[in-house]
């Protein structure tokens, strides 16, 4: 009995391990490893949750939050632009207050040529109405439907606007360049002008009232033939127009007599 007890004391651990191994092998065989897989997943799931990042439900919730935040920012921006425009409109005399309109159409192929507004004949807009935005002159209403208007932008290659240099009254014709800049061709061969001078519509303009802000002289080429030219940085945000104001077309002004210019000014839009 004593010998058996001593033998058991020496072999008990080995027998236990053998029994555990054989039992585990039998269980794995019977369950085809399912039990072991469950145990493994139960141990590693907390670690996987820590390492894998947000769940699909959390990602969906975050996406919805980002969508709402984007919409809020967009609405705030629209509200600010509209408030600025309405404040600008309220400063105008009641008899000549413009129609606030939003840009609702713009083709990528004609980005610098034209825009479509959400107001038309039903709002009193007609062909030849003047379109302005923060910064100054934007363009001219070219065609109208009951509920929309198409505007020819001053950045269009076909656009021509009679302008003047505010500092010296030097005059010329501003032509679109399909960009945020335009080309100013002077009537004088050597105009009194310098970089930084402000440009506005002149009394030579046949379709726009005088004194509308247009832009600033960015560069000069006084040796250009047959007339000196300048690059003009346009003030209105032609690249990203959103809200504009549409004004009735002005009465045809009397042309002012040119003084000390070398050639007779041509008629301008």
From TrEMBL:
<dbReference type="InterPro" id="IPR055342">
    <property type="entry name" value="MreC_beta-barrel_core"/>
</dbReference>
<dbReference type="Pfam" id="PF04085">
    <property type="entry name" value="MreC"/>
</dbReference>
<feature type="coiled-coil region">
    <location>
        <begin position="65"/>
        <end position="92"/>
    </location>
</feature>
<dbReference type="InterPro" id="IPR007221">
    <property type="entry name" value="MreC"/>
</dbReference>
<protein>
    <recommendedName>
        <fullName>Cell shape-determining protein MreC</fullName>
    </recommendedName>
</protein>
<dbReference type="InterPro" id="IPR042177">
    <property type="entry name" value="Cell/Rod_1"/>
</dbReference>
<feature type="domain" description="Rod shape-determining protein MreC beta-barrel core">
    <location>
        <begin position="103"/>
        <end position="247"/>
    </location>
</feature>
<dbReference type="GO" id="GO:0005886">
    <property type="term" value="C:plasma membrane"/>
</dbReference>
<dbReference type="GO" id="GO:0008360">
    <property type="term" value="P:regulation of cell shape"/>
</dbReference>
<keyword id="KW-0133">Cell shape</keyword>
<comment type="similarity">
    <text>Belongs to the MreC family.</text>
</comment>
<keyword id="KW-0175">Coiled coil</keyword>
<dbReference type="InterPro" id="IPR042175">
    <property type="entry name" value="Cell/Rod_MreC_2"/>
</dbReference>
